[in-house]
């Protein structure tokens, strides 16, 4: 899942964005440009009765601090494949926040749900929090989702994130950055996922557009 990093640090502008698209992908830093790469409307796969979040995979337990909360407004589609994509994308988002909270840029939880450039982006994102001895706190909301499942075992997921009530918390002092909603509090994400041999939808690519008109309230 990338979040606008507001992590303020001496080397950065005050209240600068360290909550970089926290889902941990490639945040191009573009603002207001809704042309998100990696998204298409390719032929959708017919619903598969056997598809669901895989029970056979040895999934990591994900536990984030109580002050990190989410509002996932993603709706059940009735298509088991699409619902599995949404489930595993949500788990990846939570796993990145857990890795940040535990200050582990190579945490096995987020690497379970991501590979390729998405995993590399998450590692870089988490490491910035580790370097500044900070983590996320507050509420983030996810909405406006669109899922396309393809016959080749891949899927495209587009969604919005509202970061207006999330911020950074510094581990040494317990202090948090002030929050204020701006157009850049709203981020559009476009991800490419692939179903692996264990039936897990792994995010391979994730891009974001901060300040997207599509995500504004």
Determine the mean pLDDT: 82
The stretches of 5 or more residues where confidence is low (pLDDT under 50) are 4-17, 20-24, 33-52
Biggest sheet: strands side by side, in what order?
1-6-5-4-3-2
Number of helices: 3
Helix-strand pattern: EEHHHEEEE
Question: Would you give an account of this structure?
Answer:
This protein has helices at residues 80-101, 108-113, 116-131; strands at 26-31, 68-72, 134-149, 154-170, 186-195, 201-210. The protein has a 6-stranded mixed beta sheet, with helices on one face. It has 217 residues and is α/β, with parallel strands linked by helices. Strand 3 (134-149) and strand 4 form a beta hairpin. Residues 4-17, 20-24 and 33-52 have low confidence and may be disordered.
SSE inventory with pairings:
Blueprint: E1 26-31, E2 68-72, H1 80-101, H2 108-113, H3 116-131, E3 134-149, E4 154-170, E5 186-195, E6 201-210
Parallel strand pairs: 1-6, 2-3
Antiparallel strand pairs: 3-4, 4-5, 5-6
Helix pairs in contact: 1-3
